[in-house]
Amino acid sequence: MSEKEKPKYGKLIEGAENLSLGVSIVVAILMGIGLGWLMRHWFGYEWLFLVRCFFGVLVVRF
C-alpha cells in the first residue's frame, strides 16, 4: 500500500479512538468525585471531597 492510499475505515478508527479518550476523561473525573463523596461521608471532612475531585482532574491531565 502506498503512502497516499488510506485505509477504508481510517476515519471511523480515528473517531473511535477520540471517543475512547473522551469517555476515559469523563470516567476519571466521575471516579474522583465519587470517591471524594464517599470519603467525605466516611470520615466527615468536607475537604476530602475537594481533594478527590482535584485528583480526578489531575489524572485526566497526565
**Discrete helix count:** 2
What is the CA-based Rg, rounded? 19 Å
The main pleated sheet reads as: none
Please report the total strand number as a whole number.
0
Report low-confidence residues grouped into runs of 5 or more: none
Strand content: under 5%
Round the mean pLDDT to the nearest integer and report it.
Answer: 81
Structural class: mainly alpha
Span from first to last CA?
35 Å
Structure in a nutshell:
The protein is an all-alpha fold. Helix content is 79%, strand content 0%.
Structure, explained:
The two termini are 35 Å apart. The chain has a domain of 38 residues. The chain is rod-shaped, with a radius of gyration of 19 Å. The protein has two helices and no strands. With 62 residues, it is an all-alpha fold. Helices cover 79% and strands 0% of the residues.
